[in-house]
Queue: 3 jobs
Job 1
Amino acid sequence: MDEQRDKQDDMIIEQREAVRMMQDYISEHISEEITIEELAGCASFSPGYARKLFEKYLGMTPAVYIRRLKLSKSALRLRDEKLSVLDVAMDMGFGSVDGYQRAFRREFGCNPKEYALCPVPIWLFTPNLIINDERKMSDMSEIRNVFIQVIEKPARKVIIKRGIKADEYFSYCEEVGCDVWGLLTSIKSISGEPVCMWLPKNMRKPVTNVYVQGVEVEEDYDGIIPAGFEMIELPASTYLLFRGEPFADEDYVAAINEIWEAEKKYNPEFIGYKWDDTNPRIQLEPRGERGYIELVPVTKA
């Protein structure tokens, strides 16, 4: 029985790794035309089996996944770059402008030209990248560096979606859903990306709601606040930015723990500060290529 179970586990790992290879291939070639034969080739399976595995682990066909990702990437380009709808449609590999416009409207409920002129919050597609759970608890036991930097954040507002009792990412996803990140990504941030925050007691509502996801915007922001979200004000504040070294995706848990241990051990009084419990602690999206990053608020000692 143990041998049979081990073979089953090995097969699941192999399947998940194949799906992740297809996801990586799509990400690297998203502006090109991608065929199922190319995806199957990078995963070393037949086209039919590759499609079956993709649907099994991601809940959609490769074609739907590629289309939704292309449309979301195109929306960010329309928001941030001075490009025509024609240029974006062609650059992202759509066969025609008309087809692109129809697909954009079906996905986001608005016309791409209108969106380019006046971007509004939309539900962007944020893929769930496959990570093998069997590997994510690596202890990364080699000697690694943690970099610490003092940064200043200006007075600003943050658009957030609250939970009820969420105190970390997984409990937040259970309460609120994991797709909130896509909507937040569509809102242009002064820090370049959405953030996760552990709120201090003075900002919690209800008092049990510690962890939220949000997007930092200008202090004078007067744009749309999506239904179910709210906007709070944050004062100008000082932070210690803790950043670890780059890590493999499956090591994200160890990378987070690495920074948490560094925060526990660090005494900010060495550089004339003390911890500030009136401002939120900030977590950036764990991206292996840049290292895990957290910002911890401090004030002059």
Job 2
Amino acid sequence: MSALAGLVAALASGRVKVVDLTHRLDPDFPVIVLPPEFGQCARFRIEEVSAYDHRGPAWKWHEITMNEHTGTHFDAPCHWISGRDVPAGSVDEIDPAAFIGPACVIDCSAEAAADPDFLLQPAHVEAWEARHGPIPAGSWVLMRTDWSRRSGAAYLNMAGDGAHSPGPSAAAIEALLARGIRGFGTETVGTDAGQAAHFDPPFPAHYLLHGAGRFGLQCLKGLDRLPPTGAVLIAAPLKIRGGTGSPLRVLALVEEGQ
């Protein structure tokens, strides 16, 4: 049996399950809020074009509008100034093989529950590796915080000084890049912590990841359904010409018993 035939058989038998890590796109889903002097991210909007009526008697469809970085979405290198000159840095130019890779899930849910400003540090990465083995090159590294269980105002967790949500430190991203990761994903509205505008460099996950030609995934959900290792992540953005990112359906393949 070929590798692909084996995968098809495993999916059909349930030995390999498909786990959806994607939030539903709807007008109420929160988007990142920037200082008012900057342009803002648009929420998802949907408008009915026809519904088996005089506007189209046999069909129903919708007009949708949104920012590239709305809902569960992908960040390409050209999204950030540090990655603007990265070759093949837009979503339409990235090798599609780069969208599929093994997933390593670092569970920070207890820490995030105790401190909304929790930062992933190299020591957390090293502790994870001591238990699960080295992070393989080419991996998607996902920071589980269970933040996706929040909704509405609690999801952004805004205060007078901006958002308060967990994320990685610059040192943690540097440590992961040294391991040759494919990309980094979070359950929060961005790959950076809510207060990351004040870090050095500002928004280090964006700055360091995209400057290195790596990818970001944010607004993931249900990372508690994945094992620490062994899952395969499929995260293919829309093929937008010159696109800096895209909403997408993030799927994980998980083998029974993991």
Job 3
Amino acid sequence: MKQLWYTIERYYPCLLLLLGVDFFWAVILWLSDIQAFQTLIGLVVLTSILLFSAILFVLNKKENTRKELFRDFLSDSTICNEERLLSAVSQKEGESIRFLASVLREYKNESNNMADALRDYEEYVEGWAHEAKTPLSLLTMLLDNRSNEISPSLQAKLDYVRSQLQEDVTQMLYYARLKSSTKDYRFEDVYLNDCLEEVLEDYAPLLEEKQFVIINKLQSETVYTDRRGLQFMLGQIVSNAIKYSSDSPMLTISMIHSETEDVLSVEDNGIGVKKYDLPYIFQKGFTGDSTDSKKKATGMGLYLVKKMTDDLNLRLEAASQWGKGFKIAIFFPN
């Protein structure tokens, strides 16, 4: 109906012209024979309106056909769709269509080449990350099995190096996954305690070095989400707490339940974030004033956590008081 009114609005001058011609001949007919005028004037006007309606119907149908052909051409600019569209337009319009077709095909080829290059890059990054895990696993095995052959100070340093490399590799892998056009998430009921224990085990050397006190208030809660994604988020949050820890560090994990959502809270008593930095902590590369020259922060950890929560359809909130700690809450809809 909207298209019909658009067509009427577009061609209404033709109707006015047709009615003007009818008026002219009606005047001639009235002057020549008033009785014939009274008999034929209604028929003349009706015939003109019907003729205009028929022409309008044909033009509207042609317009809709051209629009459908143009939509098909834009969605898939093959030669077949191009020829179909060319058959429905004028010669002058056809030149523009041919130029547009060449541009669209060139753009499609470039887009396909970029997609192939991106796919190759993603496969390379994922392959490299998995390959890098092999020497890291070997290093972990040596540190566990040959601890009596290594001095405690050297073992602590190697543990630190291993943990840092592990975190960097994990960040790279998940960054590639988040940017990937295909996702391999597996949603299931995840036991939070099991998930948390694995994360704390990965960061055990750093937590022990900093002498963290872990307060786990979780019971036997489960959440419906992707296990690997949740582990990654918790790992980045724990890593963030380690980087900005206080002299007597403490990490508290708890869960609050409501009718609409469950809220997983991870809170530390570290140096925190300044109030004017808090709105920007999830931005890519942002480090704020919470770092010093000894802390080589990349600003990627919390950025990746935020991207992951968006991908998993979760909500993330942060709160902090400078010098008194930092808290992150992950909201799981029931």
